Amino acid sequence: KSFLSHTAYLSCFFPNTQKTDIKDLRVFWQKGTDEVVHEVYYGQEKHDNLSPKYINRTKMDMDKWTLQLLNAGIVDEGQYTCIIQHRVKGSPKVIHRSECLLHIIANYSQPEIALLHTGERMAAHQPNKYLNLSCSSSGGYPEPKQMTWLISRENVTRGLTGHTDVSQDAVTKLYNVTSKLNIPVPTNTLTNISCVLHLGEQLGSLVSVTLGI
């Protein structure tokens, strides 16, 4: 995993138990089946075959056998393969091959609750007011799992799911998420309302500032 616009570190997982000299090795990184990301040709960096989008964006740490991919973007997500060839009597032979899957993460903004308006749901002679709430978070990646609401009063908390809308920016590929909820206007008791953006098991969740009514 790597944060958007940061440096991603992709490991070759090459033990080099034979302590082979780098001058006898060709190290070759590719993305998918056809994009050359980086090449170290018998000790020298070689740029002839690189895919244009990786030029001046990669560095190989030969001590750790790790490729640094600078300014990682969402388009860089995917599977990378590290292939190491050893030159034996003139002809190169593959002695190591490993794969690495890159996921990009961009932090969502803290969810924010907005009070849209108080709507009248019934006839005027029988007023029954509703709160029309929205909660929004933006600029994140990957796509969130869901957004839920927590309504707490008198030490009892219940979870609700409103109508959630998720959109993706065509250029940046980042996601924006908004959830809308209508609830009856609380009476007599303090009610605390918050919303939670669920990002998945490993990324956890984000909680809004609580709205007290």
From TrEMBL:
Its main location: membrane. Gene3D superfamilies: Immunoglobulins. It is a single-pass type I membrane protein. The keyword Transport does not apply. Keywords: Cell membrane, Disulfide bond, Glycoprotein, Immunoglobulin domain, Membrane, Receptor, Signal, Transmembrane, Transmembrane helix. One of its GO terms (biological process) is cell surface receptor signaling pathway. Residues 1-86, 111-212 form the Ig-like domain. One of its GO terms (cellular component) is external side of plasma membrane. It is found in: Cell membrane. PROSITE patterns: IG_LIKE. InterPro entries: CD80_C2-set (IPR013162), Ig-like_dom (IPR007110), Ig-like_dom_sf (IPR036179), Ig-like_fold (IPR013783), T-cell_Activation_Regulation (IPR051713). This is CD86 protein.
